[in-house]
Amino acid sequence: MTKKTDLLDEAGVDTRLAHLGSDPFAFHGFVNPPIYRGSTVLFPDAEVLESEDQQYTYGTHGTPTTDALCTAINALEGSAGTVLVPSGLAAVTVAFLAYLSAGDHALVVDSVYGPSRRFCNRTLKRFGIEVDYYDPQIGAGIEALFKPNTKLVHLESPGSNTFEIQDVPAISEVAHRHGAVVTMDNTWATPLYFRPLDHGVDVSIHAVTKYPAGHSDILMGAISANEANWKALERINLYLGLSASPEDSYLVLRGLRTMGIRLEHHRKSALTLAEWLEGHEQVARVLHPALPSFPGHDLWKRDFKGSSGIFSFVLKANGKDRFLATASAFLDALRIFGLGYSWGGYESLALRVNLTDRTITKVPEEGPVIRLQVGLENVEDLQADIERGFAAAKAV
Ligand SMILES: Cc1ncc(COP(=O)(O)O)c(C=O)c1O
Questions:
Q1: pLDDT for 208 beyond 90
Q2: What does DSSP assign to residue 289?
Q3: Are 146 and 251 in a shared domain?
Q4: Which pLDDT tens digit goes with each residue over 121-154?
Q5: CA of 207 to the centre of ligand 1 (A)
Q6: Which of 33, 113, 161, 334 is deepest in the core (most CB within 10 A)?
Q7: 57 and 100 both lie in a single domain
């Protein structure tokens, strides 16, 4: 008889999300894995203690709960192995530490998540690792930036806050020819809408804080590597002593079960709002890769299966000196959108984006950039809320 795990390889995405990482009969038939708390794991005798030849050996090396989540993520990513770390930012920094050493050079996309850039500029630099930033739209032209010591290329597509789309296969091909590892922050798309390893990336990075957790109550990162790069990743995680809590791992696994239907709702509502905003008289530009007007839309269409719930727009303002006041008036008038960082949760959020750290990309100059995280509320209510913001912004 065909095994369930084999069927799941071919099944639809929601079927996979409902069953991946699940092994009820290993746990007396209970549908969900138990939460294994623990540092110490006992060995049955001195011989096994010496050899450590058993599946679990110590809390930081994994538990059945964290393994259930890693199994599900590996199946979604197509990866050889996954490590869980305490935040999405840690997922980026641990990946860099896995593949970079003193004297190396790394190429990092200019539209990278701000704190990832801070780690490069402050910490990697201190360790004697040189980082150059590149234009997200550079494509195969990245070849000109390679040095003999370039060991890692980091992508984030779409980019943080401005959502530029990268030519992932073209950049990966060049990087591999130069012997560099390709890492990618894939948090925006999740493996449902983009599978980095299928497009040439070696290591896929996620803030599972966002859509997998889905409820704004967990911080966690996941790093998933292909066969060639898995051992180095597993090793650095062990050496750094990082692990994810069993409660949080349980809750992320629970979040994964509904991620497909949540994402579909986020996708639809965000696109509805983006299309409406594009025609709004107080909007200069909408930065959403699924809009045909967006530069990079063709690449998005070629590579991605969907778009998620976070995008930005450029709010018109009367003169540069009123950018901040106009943005603040807009934000302060919102009642359903909360003002806050993060995204991927069930509730909508808005903020003004600060792009002052960019060194290569040309950022929008027509007005302040407002980022919207579109949650699971009814889209008409969100639209009415945004109208409140526009009315207040008009008065500035
Ligand atoms: C693209 C991206 N990567 C990584 C992170 C970091 O995730 P965490 O908040 O779990 O550290 C974020 C957080 O906003 C993000 O937007």
A1: yes
A2: T
A3: yes
A4: 999 999 999 999 999 999 999 999 999 999 999 9
A5: 5
A6: 33
A7: yes
Among 194, 197, 195, 223, CA closest to 208: 223
Residue nearest to ligand 1 atom 4, measured at CA: 88
Terminus-to-terminus CA distance in the chain, angstroms? 69
228, 363: one domain: no
Which of 96, 111, 166, 210 is the pocket-test mutation for ligand 1 (most atoms within 8 Å of CB)? 210
Distance 84 CA to ligand 1 centre (A): 14
Atom 10 in ligand 1: residue holding the nearest Cα:
88
- pLDDT tens, position by position, 224-239: 999 999 999 999 999 9
Residues 348 and 220 in one domain: no
Single-letter amino acid, residue 247: E
Place of tokens 């993060």: 342
Residues 216 and 343 in one domain: no
Integer Cα distance of 310 and 269 in angstroms: 10
For residues 263 and 375, the answer to whether their CB atoms sit within 8 Å is no
Give the pTM.
0.97
Among 108, 183, 187, 310, residue to substitute to test ligand 1 (most atoms within 8 Å of Cβ)? 187
d(CA 28, CA 235) in angstroms, rounded, equals 33
- Half-sphere exposure in the Cβ direction for 241 (13 Å, CA): 1
Q: Residue 9: its pLDDT value, please? A: 86
